[in-house]
Amino acid sequence: MPARLLLVLDADSTLIRNEVIELIADEAGRGAEVAAATEAAMRGEVDFATSLRSRVEALRGVPLAAFARVLARIEPTPGARELIDAVHARGGIVGVVSGGFHEVLDTVAPQLGVDVWRANRLHAADGVLTGRVDGGIVDAAGKAAALGEWAAEHGVPASRTVAVGDGANDLLMMAAAGLGVAFNAKPAVRAQADLVIGPVDLAQVVPLLP
User: Does residue 115 carry a catalytic annotation?
Assistant: First the structure.
C-alpha cells in the first residue's frame, strides 16, 4: 500500500540541534577548526565532498568509544517528535538524509521514529577513526537521489513530498520535492526555498504537510 506522503529531513541543525562532526572533532580537540569549515560548507562557499573529506581527516585518531559521549550530547530539535508523529498519523513516512554519519544516525533516527535514513560512514581500524570516509559521500546530489528513491519505493508522487533543510547541500533535495522548506537556514537556502520557517521548532512544518 503506497504511503500518503514523504517527509525528508536533513539531520544536523535540522532534525537535531547539533552538528555531529563538530561533536566528534571536540573529542580530538579540533572542534573550533572543524566548526569553521562546516559553516563555510553549509553556506555553499566550498565543495561539500571536498570539505567533508578534509574535516573527517581532522577526526583521525578519535577512539570509537568516544561515540557514547557524542550521542549523550545530541539534542533533538524542538518539535521533531511532534512532526514525525503527525506524518505517521497522516499515513506518511519520514526519511532522514545526512551529510553526517551513520555512526550517530543509526541510534538517533529510530529513537525519534524515523522510517528510513542514509548518511556517510566513517572508516575505522583498531578501534579508532582513520580520518577517511568509508564508501561514497552523501552530498547534495545524493540527498536529492535519496528523496527520489524513497518516493518511488513507497509510491509517493513528487507533489506529496516535503524536504526540510538548512544548508547549501540541501538545495537539490528541496528543489526536487513538492515543497522545499528552509529551516534554521543559511541565507542562500532561505533565498531559494519555497517556504522559510524562522522559529527553531519543527512542529511549524505540521500545517504545511500535504
Answer: no
